[in-house]
Design goal:
7-stranded mixed β-sheet, 6-stranded mixed β-sheet, alpha+beta, 5 helices, about 40% strand
């Protein structure tokens, strides 16, 4: 009986041990596969794989961003596995985490340089002491004898001192030079290491899951969440080769993130949506007029000064559809006899079946199958068994798909991208568009005597531009950076391409026609200006010329635009701006006049 009891105790112990091991939480590394980046924030998608036992399982999914919106967290599991509970936490213990290879390389470099510097400082100290000992030894040797040294002995001593001290001083100079170089290297590497440390990878997110599995099986988890630690901004490279060719507008983006993760080869999507905004459309309430009381009011508490409402974060809804593995399949291949090899043509060049199989399916732009007469007509007898014609994607436009939804624009990029977590902006090309522009010269000589070349794009809203900065290049020369305001109400998009001194403008006051009259109680002044424009180019140009007259804000001040002013194209009376717009022939000169009078009381002083 005693032996049976011992066996029973051992068996129970083994069962308890196995049970405890089965219930112990498994640590699962996750892989970041997709990132949808908004103007502010990003939606990240991770995947993880686990082998589960029947019943309850506990797993810890590692490698998530520590800065997530917990309300946006969505978890899916395959094969009927149910997520019965979950808890998100942050791991602050970074000592066990593997460092990035580049960061480890930088730290090793600092250690290497520091060890060399320490050894060099020892050599410097020894050499300095040797120089001091040599000087002391020579001094004692010369002054130690009562009768002093003879001439021969003194010369030998001095020669020895000169030789040895020269060697030591050369060594000292070389050591000091090496010391400066090592210190400079340490400063440079430490600066780069400090920049790498901004990746914020000292913390990581961990998702603790409690799962219920109907049977022992493998399951794949998909975790989707929103984080505010990412952003993208659009910008443009606008290239104008000449005024008779369309403008090339290259749309680009700058993507940066400090999510605590390095995004390595992720499927990237850029969106103009603004999640976590949560604003609601405003509604009017009744506006009752009441008598205002001007009694002193105590300062409101800080809490009362806050808005009485808050903006609820918008929940990021994940896609319910599971992404299936895309299989590479050649259309029409089933109609080709297995015993006969078709001819493969890739970008116009014949290729083998092996070369065809080595192509990444995501890099194929178009594929078609030619058979019978259509194949032999183009490729002769080589196409008797059929021809499979493949066109590869050869520009960034082939990999970017733009979707204009009701509230936002989405750019899906089929190329995998790596975005480091150090906050550095990574430039990504999106697409290139062409636009036709009308070119005009513009000058407002009262403000600036320079003449500017402008490019005006009509129907610019059809280009689908976003607000951002634009780098302008004209005729191969960088002009500068200009803002593009996508919310502008202007009918035309105007780009300033720089100044051109070949179209000269001069503004002068005609003193003989300007006058000042003193009346009974008033003063009346007349101002006359001439504007001279000359086209020094060998081709006709369109010119826009502007000038200004003052406006009155008081009844006592009267301003009149006089009749001898040159007839204008547009007169904006609310601004007091006159516009002349005409075409100038090569070498043509024209003069314009603006004349106005101002009448005001003698006692007033005006900014005329």
């Amino acid at each position: 009986m005693r032996t049976a009891s011992i066996y029973l105790s051992v068996l129970l112990g083994l069962l308890l041990s196995v049970t405890s091991q089965a219930q112990e939480a498994k640590n699962l590394p996750s892989k970041l596969t997709e990132a949808t980046v908004f103007f502010r924030g990003a939606e990240l998608t991770h995947t993880a794989n686990a082998t589960l036992v029947k019943g309850e399982n506990e797993v810890n999914v590692e490698g998530l961003s520590p800065d997530i919106d917990i309300n946006s967290l969505k978890i899916r599991a395959t094969n009927g596995v149910i997520v019965s509970a979950y808890e998100f936490s942050i791991d602050y213990l970074s000592s066990g985490k593997p460092k990035a290879p580049f960061q480890k390389q930088l730290e090793d470099s600092v250690t290497y340089y520091q060890e060399k510097l320490d050894k060099l400082n020892i050599d410097l100290k020894i050499n300095t002491n040797m120089i001091a000992q040599l000087q002391n030894g020579i001094t004692k040797n010369v002054s130690g004898s009562e009768k002093g040294l003879g001439i021969d002995e003194l010369m030998k001593t001095m020669d020895y001192y000169k030789s040895k001290s020269e060697q030591m001083e050369i060594t000292q100079t070389a050591l000091n030079k090496q010391k400066k170089q090592l210190e400079a290297s340490i400063v440079r590497v430490n600066a780069q290491l400090a920049q790498e440390s901004t990746k914020n990878n000292k913390r990581s997110g961990i998702l603790k899951l409690t799962l219920a599995s109907p049977r022992p099986q493998a399951s794949t988890f998909t975790i989707v969440y929103y984080t505010a630690q990412a952003s993208w901004t659009p910008y443009y490279d606008i290239n104008i080769t000449s005024t008779d060719k369309p403008i090339q507008i290259a749309q680009k983006s700058k993507v940066s993130q400090t999510t605590g993760l390095d995004w390595e080869k992720v499927k990237l999507t850029l969106s103009t949506a603004t999640p976590s905004n949560g604003r609601t459309a405003p509604l009017f309430s009744s506006w009752f007029l009441q008598q205002r009381e001007y009694a002193p009011v105590a300062a409101a508490p800080q809490a009362m000064m806050q808005n009485s409402y808050t903006y609820a974060d918008e929940v990021i809804v994940s896609k319910e559809e599971e992404v299936q593995d895309q299989k590479f399949m050649i259309r029409g291949a089933s109609s080709t006899p297995a015993s006969q090899e078709p001819l493969y043509v890739i970008d116009g060049h014949p290729a083998s079946a092996q070369e065809m199989q080595n192509i990444d399916p995501s890099m194929i732009k178009e594929m078609s199958v030619l058979k019978d007469a259509s194949a032999t007509a183009l490729y002769g007898s080589r196409g008797a068994s059929g021809v499979i014609v493949v066109t590869l994607k050869n520009s960034i436009e082939d990999y970017v798909t733009e979707s204009d939804n009701v509230l936002n624009v989405v750019y899906n990029i089929d190329l995998p991208y790596t975005i480091p977590g150090n906050g550095k902006a990574q430039s990504i090309d999106l697409q290139t568009k062409e636009a036709t522009a009308e070119y005009k010269y513009y000058c407002a000589p009262k403000l600036d005597t320079e003449t500017y070349l402008l490019a005006e794009i009509s129907d610019w809203e059809k280009l689908g531009l976003l607000s951002g900065r634009a780098n302008i290049t004209y005729d191969g020369t960088y002009v500068g950076e200009l803002p593009i305001n996508a919310s502008s109400t202007q009918e035309k998009l105007t780009l300033t391409l720089g100044t051109d001194k070949r179209v000269a403008v001069k503004r002068e006051k005609m003193k003989d026609f300007s006058s000042t009259k003193v009346l009974a109680n008033d003063v009346e002044q007349v101002f006359v200006y001439t504007l001279t424009v000359k086209n020094n180019q060998n081709k006709p140009v369109k010119m826009v010329l502007k000038d200004q007259y003052p406006l009155s804000t008081q009844k006592k001040i009267e301003v009149n635009l006089l009749k001898d002013t040159t007839p204008w194209t547009v007169n904006k009376e609310d601004l007091g701006v006159i516009t002349w717009e005409e075409e100038f022939k090569p070498g043509e000169t024209k003069m314009y006049k603006i004349s106005y009078s101002v009448k005001y009381p003698k006692t007033m002083r005006l900014n005329l």
